[in-house]
Specification:
The protein is α/β, with parallel strands linked by helices. It has one domain: NAD(P)-binding Rossmann-like Domain (Rossmann fold), CATH 3.40.50.720. About 45% of the residues lie in helices and about 15% in strands. It is built from 7 helices and 7 strands. The chain has helices at about 15-25, 40-50, 65-80, 105-130, 150-170, 200-205, 215-225; strands at about 5-10, 30-35, 55-60, 85-90, 135-140, 175-185, 235-240. It has a 7-stranded parallel β-sheet, sandwiched between helices. Helix 1 (about 15-25) runs parallel beside helix 2 and helix 4 runs parallel beside helix 5 (about 150-170). The longest helix has 28 residues, at about 105-130. The protein is globular. It starts with 6 loop residues before the first strand and ends in a 7-residue tail after the last strand.
Amino acid sequence: MRLQDKVAIITGAARGMGASEARIFANEGAKVILADIQVEDGNHVTKEIIDAGGQALFVEMDVSSQADWDRTIEAAISNFGKINVLVNNAGIIERDSLEETTEETWDKIMAVNAKGVFLGTKAVIPHMRAAGGGSIVNISSISGMISVGYPAYNSSKGAIRVFTKCAAVELARDNIRVNSIHPGTIWTSMSTYKRAFTREERAKTIPMQRVAEPEEIAYPALFLASDESSYMTGSELVIDGGATAE
């Protein structure tokens, strides 16, 4: 019960890594608010958690909307009384080259991936401060560290990387820790979006010769959310099967 009595908000919790984080956090004792625009899937995961004996609440949410953040925070406080953990997991991708990227695409990706993290972090600060501290886990990507990839997506993930460090330094005296996770290829619905390749083909490009499961990001997120990582802030946790070591 590594998150016993803690209240956690997880964005993008209806599918993939976010859903895995929600299940694992609840299993470790957290009261979980699952936030996502995917209502049907979000309600399904929430029901799974409750049926298994956990405590969970689903909130329909667009992370780029201040009003939606206000509503989600209100739901967390009114139902569970406090906020201890935030996982900024929600993200989108468009696999367009620099010349193919439109202004609309750039703005959309930045709004969800970068602005969403900013809004969420800012929204939980007073509540974590009131709780005596907290942990914010921002899901970036190895795409925020290297140039291989797609300019809009990579830039948004790079923004998360630097924002995490800025927030970590500013909030350290409030005992609010802010860390980032940088996954490599994780097998979710985003993996094959607008790109036709098999899992086996992708695995051949990774030193460990396999693609990760969502749980392999969720468990490190659990570590960062828990008190086990109490002296970590502003850190980058790279989980990529050795991809960036080559």
